[in-house]
Structures are given as structure tokens and as C-alpha cells.
Amino acid sequence: MLYLAFIIYLLNQKKKNSFCPFCDEKILNYQKYFEDGNVIGLCSYKPLLRGHSLIIPKRHVERLEDLTDSEMQNVFNLIKRTNIAVQKVLNNKSYILIQKNGKEVGQSVFHVHFHYIPRKENGSNFGFLTRFLTYPFKRKLNPNEMQDIKELLSQNI
Ligand SMILES: [Zn+2]
After folding, report:
1. Could you tell me the CA-to-CA distances from 138 to 3, 49, 50, 103, 149 in Å, in that order?
2. Where are the chain's structural domains?
């Protein structure tokens, strides 16, 4: 009996560890502002700054080097289109891209994703850096806020 409980525990652990938010239909539908071919654009549920987006391949692969040439091209095309849309609606001039490969550099979701983070020119560098450091404590968008930013991006991309 104890043995069976242990097996069930292990199976659940495996299930928990293999959960991928970027393969979860519910999460994708909640955050998606764009989908085409083999790529998806998502609004961050906990944005560092307004317009913070995530660009992902549809296929579950862990690292950048696992992407096919076609996925790589479409991911970068979507980054470019996202930037044009965000600049149009939020009027930012600058942005930063972040993409991590491996837990040693802080990758926490093991499905390739690019963070697109826009920045307006009037903020201070210290303020911008502070946002990165305090990211774990950022507030999640509520469903109305998510709907607003999703619509704004999907109508302008
Ligand atoms: Zn995935």
C-alpha cells in the first residue's frame, strides 16, 4: 500500500514537473494576441512594463537551438511585428529582448520564449533596473487589464 502511494506520488511529481504553461490551451487563450503558422504572441500575465510580450514557437522545444529554421524565422518576424504594434499603440522608442537557455541563466519555463519589453525614453535607468530586480513581486494583470492589452495588440498587429 505504501509502495503504491509512493508510485502515485512519483507520477504526480512527474506530471507537475512536465506542466508547460505555453502548451496549456487555457493559458494560451487567456494571453494570446497573435497566432500564425508555427508561432504565438502572448501578453505577459505579470508585465515588467506595459506591452511586455512573449513570443513563442507553438511546438514545445526547450532551447533556441532546438528551433527549426522556419520557426526561427517566424519567431523573429513576430518579434518585429510585435515591436511595430507596441510602438504604434504605446509610443515607446526602445525595447529589450530577453531569451534564456538553461536553468543556470534563470530559465524557468522550459519552452523557448522571447520576452519583448518596451521602454519609454523618460524613465530612469535605475527605475528600469529596479523593475527587473523586483519582478518576482510584480502584480498579475486582472482579466480586464489582460483583455485591454490583448485587444490593443491584436487590433494593431
Ligand atoms: Zn510547452
Report:
1. 42, 10, 12, 21, 17
2. 19-156
* Spatial strand order in the sheet of 114-119: 32-36, 39-43, 53-57, 114-119, 94-98
Provide mean pLDDT across the span 46-53. 94
pLDDT for residue 4: 55
pTM of the model: 0.85
Instruction: Decide if 115 is catalytic.
Output: no
Residue 122 CA to ligand 1 center (angstroms) comes to 36
Query: Does residue 17 register a pLDDT over 80?
Result: no
Q: Are strands 53-57 and 114-119 parallel, antiparallel or unpaired?
A: antiparallel
Question: Which amino acid type is present at position 111?
Answer: H
CA distance 3 to 104: 34
- What is the CA(120)–ligand 1 centre distance, in A? 31
Domain at 19-156, CATH homologous superfamily: HIT-like (3.30.428.10)
Q: How far is the CA of 20 from the centre of ligand 1 (A)?
A: 5
Residue 2, CB half-sphere, CA atoms under 13 Å: how many? 0
Query: Mean pLDDT throughout 4-8?
Result: 56
| Cα distances (angstroms) measured from residue 10 to each of 17, 49, 109, 110 | 10, 39, 21, 20
